[in-house]
Amino acid sequence: MLGKFTEDSPIDNIVFSCFDNMAARKLLFNKWFSYQNEKTTEYRKENPKEINIFIDGRMTAEGIQVFVVRSLEEAEVYSKTLFDDSEIEDAMCSYKATCQTGTMIASLMSVVFLNHVANKLTGINIREVPFAMEYDNAMMDYKTYKYYEYRI
User: Fold this and answer.
1) 150 lies in a domain?
2) Which tens digits make up the pLDDT trace of 110-136?
3) DSSP letter string, the chain
4) Which among 76, 69, 64, 72 has a CA at the least distance from the CA of 100?
């Protein structure tokens, strides 16, 4: 898609959210979630291997958060992570992102997507797909959470 994401923009089953603001992130999630909720139980039974996933990557110069939504339960917890842009302290322009953090978040988002696809196609949950991942560059501290473990 080219241009700004709006309420009229198209949506699909697989979404990677990489916005630099919460308003766009919230719009994208709500649109994806509504699209998923339009599917009937019959449709879902007929398409058990359909890939439906929302992956949200958030980063600063030295930190990463990745959220993965694949179910109603995860959507409920994820929606609580959305907040108003005014709650974010503005960082210096040159310290909003670093190439190593950008590379790392792209890698994590790709791996979690591929793990989800592998699980769906095999019908066996053999690969890890956490609800949330956090990484702090300075401390080299990496954490993963299931949706029921994540505390806001």
Assistant:
1) no
2) 999 999 999 999 999 999 999 999 999
3) --S---TTS---SEEEE--SSHHHHHHHHHHHHHHHHTS-HHHHHH-TT---EEEEEEE-SSEEEEEEE-SHHHHHHHHTT---GGGSPPPPGGGS--HHHHHHHHHHHHHHHHHHHHHHHHTS--S---SEEEEETTTTEEEEE-TTT---
4) 64
- Is residue 97 situated within a structural domain? yes
Identify the CA nearest to 152 among candidates 135, 132, 137, 136: 132
Residue 47 covered by a domain = yes
**Domain with 108 in it:** 14-145
